[in-house]
Amino acid sequence: MSGRLLRALAGLSAAGAVHAAVNTALLRRPPAAPPSVRRSVAVVLPVRDEAAHVLDCLAAALDQRGVPDLRVVVVDDGSTDGTAALVAGHPDPRVRSVPARAPGPGWLGKPNACAQGAAAAGDADVLVFLDADVRLMPDAVAAAVAVLDDAELDLVSPWPRQLAGSAAERLVQPLQQWLWATFLPLRLAERSPRPSLAAANGQFLVVRRAAYDRAGGHAAVRGEVIEDVALLRAVKATGGRGAVVDGSTLAVCRMYDGWAGVREGYAKSLWASVGGSPAAGLATAGALTAIWVLPAAAALRGSRAGLAGYAAGVAGRAVSAAATGGRVWPDALAHPVSVLALDVLMVRSVLGHRRGTLRWRGRAVDAGPPAPDGRAPAPDGGGATRMVR
């Protein structure tokens, strides 16, 4: 590798670190003592085989300070592990159980469940979409709504602090925050309607009901694997504004357990980030490798430019981790290895999509052709949708 090219790659790595530092300085943060919410709030919790998580998630969602008008809609999406029975036995009258109807043509499972949950939430002014592996802190909802109001936004995505137990999780999970901190100009993204300037995390998503309905709700993103980002794009396309905010003090989440979970979880969605194109997937992996792996390899051979590029990559990773509640040291030192792991996951995901072999929770990761009217199946009428006692 020529010295000029190596210096250019090191410069790009340094630019990424500087951008991450600026972004994290501008990252919106929730108030430590949020005011009470004076509007109705509905938490929509889609679940599929979440018996290990659903009760703890419910307990945290119900234990919210400063939200006097709170209801929780749990949408059971065909669970076979007893999840539905656990929810049905919950004693809090604020919990409503909705058995999801199967996804129709063109619908993926999670958008289908979220759409039915939003429909069952009635006239709630604010919708909170939550994953079962998320644990909210007591002020989480009030603080998220405060950011929504103070910044005059229509959607906020408080990024939970990501818990990582295994080596694989510690390598890969922090890249979520690092990627948007490095590549997405946060404040510009808030104002811009451009679809490419969007980042969101469906683990914990807060949206004004009026903006959600105006955007078409989850029907507008019914076939999207990365439905959270697609929903933000739909909100922006209809005149709304949304943003990622710091959620590290509001919620925690352990997405996957070990390499097998990381491998299968990212396989289902990474292809969608590059449009399913093998060429785009390989180009993305190649660019990440060139900027954040090759300088580190050159540093091992004594290159000063390579060492500078490696140090910049580590700095960017450390900055994003520190700002989002992640583990900084020694994990940031392994940043080139993390990028290589992401490359492997990207290639596997794109190839799996091309071959049609990707599955998640027993379903193919392919929505098929859309339904003629694009609408979600309605919740069952009568006694099938009921208040849990």
What class would the helix/strand composition place it in? alpha/beta
Look at the structure and give the mean pLDDT: 91
CATH homologous superfamily grouping of the largest domain: Spore Coat Polysaccharide Biosynthesis Protein SpsA, Chain A
Low-confidence stretches: 372-389
Radius of gyration: 21 Å
- Major β-sheet profile: 9 strands, mixed
Question: What is the number of independent domains?
Answer: 2
What is the H/E string? HEHEHEHEEHEHHHEHHEHHHHHHEEE
- By CATH, the topology of the largest domain is Spore Coat Polysaccharide Biosynthesis Protein SpsA, Chain A
CATH architecture of the largest domain: Alpha-Beta Complex
Compute the number of helices.
Answer: 16
Cross-sheet strand order for the largest sheet: 5-8-6-7-4-1-2-3-11
The first-level CATH class of the largest domain is given as Alpha Beta
Spatial separation of the terminal alpha carbons: 68 Å
Shape: globular
Helix content: 40-55%
Overall number of strands: 11
Provide an overview of this structure.
Helices cover 46% and strands 15% of the residues. It has 389 residues and is of the alpha/beta class. The chain has 2 domains: 3-25 and 260-364, no CATH class; 28-257 and 369-387, Spore Coat Polysaccharide Biosynthesis Protein SpsA, Chain A (Alpha-Beta Complex), CATH 3.90.550.10. A 9-stranded mixed sheet has the order 5-8-6-7-4-1-2-3-11, with helices on both faces. It has a two-stranded antiparallel sheet with strand order 9-10. Helix 1 packs parallel to helix 15 (304-323), helix 7 (175-183) crosses helix 15 and helix 13 packs antiparallel against helix 16. The longest helix is centred in the N-terminal third of the chain and has 24 residues, at 3-26.
